[in-house]
Here is the input.
Amino acid sequence: MLRVNMEIVPFGEEERKYSIGVMEIGNIGSQNDVANYVVQLDGNDIGKIEDFRRDRGAWDLVRLAIELLPQENRKGLHYEDQNAPRFSFKEFMDLQELIETKVKK
Here is the structure.
């Protein structure tokens, strides 16, 4: 079984983290290099992935499991405001460092 725990880590402070959801992907049958999986979100079945070739890897399996999510659970997985500013992680960290430097002065 794969378990994906989605957490919020406010400002990168580990001691403040909290879980907002747990997805479990369980093998329900396999034949050599192909397997079938059941997907649960917070303990509720949301669907199955059938005839998955294992050589595609765990992250591709997780991607397919996310695609099974009902629309109401997909909020926050993508930008809803196309005009919202977008930052790479590095740009975000640089900005955070700049803000911290300014605050310390």
Remarks:
- Residues 2-78 form one domain.
- The first strand starts at residue 2 and ends at 8.
- Residues 34 and 53 are 5 Å apart (CA to CA).
- Residues 89-104 form the longest helix (16 residues).
